[in-house]
Amino acid sequence: MNQPLSASQRVILFVVAIGVFVPAVDLTVVATMLRPIIVDLEIPLPDGLDQAAWIVNAYLIAYVLAMPVAGRLSDVWGRRSVFIGAYLLFIGGSIWAPMAPDLNGFLVGRVVAALGGGAMVPVAMAVVADIYRPEQRGRALGLLSAVETGGWVWGPIYGAMLVRFLSWHWHFYLNVPLGLLGLGLAWWVLRDWPRPAERPRLDWLGTAVLTICLLSLNVALLGGGDLQSAGGFTAFDEVETSGTAWGLYLLATVALLLFVGVQRYQQRVTAEGKPAAFWQAPPLIDLRLLRQPYFSGGVLVNFFLGSMIIIVMVNVPLIVNVREVDISQSALYSGYLLSGVTGTMALFAYVGGRLLERCGYRPVTLAGLVLAGAGLGLMGASWSVHTAYTVMIAQLVLVGMGFGLVLAPMATAVINAAPAAQRGVAASLVIVMRLLGMSVGLAALTAWGLNRFNQLRPHIPLPDLPFTDPAYQQAIIDGLTQLTVQVLAETFAITAVVALSALLITLWYFRKGEK
């Protein structure tokens, strides 16, 4: 930053952190508000489960789609303009959603809010990268990661409290004053933020192709999700991928190849001189960044990190739900266990940022992946229907420490590797790849887990008793419970291998010393 700012670094960091926290809460808050939303929107059950799944999926997809576009827009148009515009979208969607008369109207509000919320995250990270020197960015980005994780943790708790004492509508009503407060603070602290000296055209052609790629991929990965899966693998008999899903995967692949071609074309046109046609512009993502080890390595590790996080976040409640008959008890124990990983992850995201300043990318990331891999390996080897919750939370704390340590170094590595004119889009790739990792990890988890369950189910030991005998029926229930927990525990062991893969990537791409 060449131009001095009237607000201090800490004040700016605090203000943009609000813009990260509020939409992060929206990402998870509906988890505990889903049932009353379904009832109030008159979604028929069970036939309407596929429609109800979009209450969650629509926000996540729009959240991801907004990031690369918003990141690049902030590089071209300036951080302040895009950040303020994102806030306005978020507030508008929050006003619309609770007033909607039906599911379609509600989803429109959720999508608009998600576009604004998703746009704020990479812009906030780019703002931090602008005001902090490269060697200082670790702690600031670590703090932003901690704030984002804190939003994920607070969302379900906050939603449960609102449903218990008020109604789900109040979440969106309260978003409006919170959003207006954040918007006002952002308007003030970024009032003298310098605009780019040059304002090149936005690569609308590349943006359109990338949007098609991300949209089709996420719809294919998430659109087939069924809310019945929240009850465990026993709700399904077969795993099938529909023709529509395969078509979307094919469309995503073609769009990705087209995007690479468009970016190369735009790079060549820009190098030859000023673009002439309206569709010609500097590339949305400079593919030459992928040649930089810290950039490409950081992007890959973030992808693997996302896949690891989602498997833990989904499987832990599933195991508790299978073990506990009482629904209220299962919710209590699930929250207790997940707090071990998410709370520790938030704390160690900041610790990782501070350690990054002393040790560099490689040692901190390796330490985090070793801790996460060790915790996941212990979970895969020891979790069963009889494992004590105290043992479980101890291992989850270890995993949370590992995840937290990785967040700041891998975000900082990607952003530091990008030139100032590409920081916004680089910041967006950090979060996009992490969220894509979550989507891919969840899809792979479901497919593998269901197939594994169906392979093992015929081998459940049963007593030599009549089928109608209560002892025989109880043996079936016990066998299915043990088998479900076994399969879920095996996915933790597989995730430990994913952690090892990320560790090898770190060793390969971060071979040179850096500070």
Provide a compact summary of the structure:
With about 525 residues, the protein is mostly helical. Helix content is about 75%, strand content about 0%.
Q: What is the C-level CATH assignment of the largest domain?
A: Mainly Alpha
Total strands: 0
Look at the structure and give the mean pLDDT.
80
* CATH topology (fold) name of the largest domain: Growth Hormone, Chain: A
Stretches where pLDDT is under 50 for at least 5 consecutive residues are 224-239
Question: Main β-sheet, in a few words?
Answer: none
Number of helices: 15
For the record, the count of structural domains works out to: 2
Proportion of residues in extended strands: under 5%
Shape: globular
Helical amount among residues, as a percent range? Answer: over 70%
CA-atom Rg in angstroms: 23 Å
Q: Based on helices, strands and strand pairing, what is the structural class?
A: mainly alpha
Architecture of the largest domain, CATH level 2?
Up-down Bundle
Instruction: Give the end-to-end Cα distance, rounded to a whole number of Å.
Output: 21 Å
Order of helices and strands: HHHHHHHHHHHHHHH
CATH evolutionary superfamily of the largest domain: MFS general substrate transporter like domains
Kindly describe this structure:
This protein folds into 2 domains: 1-202, Growth Hormone, Chain: A (Up-down Bundle); 289-455 and 468-515, Up-down Bundle (Growth Hormone, Chain: A), CATH 1.20.1250.20. Mean pLDDT is 80; it is low at 224-239. The chain has helices at 9-29, 34-40, 49-77, 79-99, 103-131, 137-165, 169-189, 204-222, 243-272, 293-323, 327-359, 361-382, 389-417, 423-456, 470-509. 77% of the residues lie in helices and 0% in strands. The protein is built from 15 helices and no strands.
